[in-house]
Amino acid sequence: MDILHNMRREYEAGELNEKEMSSDPLVMFGRWLQEAVNAGVTEPNAMTLATATTEGRPSARVVLLKEVNSEGFVFFTNYLSRKGRELLENPHAALVFDWHEMERQVRIEGRTGKLSAGESDAYFNSRPENAKIGAWTSPQSKIVRDRNELDELLQATEMRFAHKEIHRPDHWGGFLIRPSVVEFWQGRPNRLHDRIAFYKTEEGWSRHRLAP
């Protein structure tokens, strides 16, 4: 479409200076996340998650970050969904946070692993009841007949747990992504953007500026 050829804007919101950055990318990420929250970015914890089959066929979707700690990034999903199955078969993933209002992105690569049952239980138990019901109801990523089938499954789940505690299903839980690469991107004029990447080494983290 010709209209796309003329879509262009300059990025002038800020700059990225190595001297002002933390030596720990997870600390730096936490700082940027808080700034995104303070700036009123819509769902600043939304992230694009890319996975791949063992044959290298990729897929991507947006999910929500639920925790960031000294080990990495945590999210929750149905283990039988496409992303769940791909991560269990090929435990490598990439994340992208796009805080476009601030002209910032963070790109992450790392290895994934399931959280413990206790950790998944703790988060599941903190969810509202309708979210718990949804985790039991949806045969995520499978083909369904129509919307009526989902409504019927929902009704059956609600009847099953009427007046009962809703425990976590075995097919639902968390993943931790332990980063090996964390890249911070700040838009700059003339497309000469700032890119600072951290790479995990045996000694800790090394930091490098990348050409835009």
What would you say this structure looks like, in words?
There is one protein chain. The protein has 212 residues and is of the alpha+beta class. It has one domain: Electron Transport, Fmn-binding Protein, Chain A (Pnp Oxidase, Chain A, Roll), CATH 2.30.110. Helix content is 28%, strand content 33%. The chain has helices at residues 2-5, 25-38, 82-89, 117-126, 129-137, 147-160, and strands spanning 46-52, 58-64, 67-68, 73-78, 92-99, 104-114, 172-186, 194-201, 204-210. Helix 5 (129-137) crosses helix 6 (147-160). It is globular. The two termini are 26 Å apart.
CATH class: Mainly Beta
| Tally of DSSP β-strands | 9
The CATH architecture would be: Roll
**CA-atom Rg in angstroms:** 20 Å
The shape is globular
* Proportion of residues in extended strands: 25-35%
Structural topology:
Layout: H1 2-5, H2 25-38, E1 46-52, E2 58-64, E3 67-68, E4 73-78, H3 82-89, E5 92-99, E6 104-114, H4 117-126, H5 129-137, H6 147-160, E7 172-186, E8 194-201, E9 204-210
Helix pairs in contact: 5-6
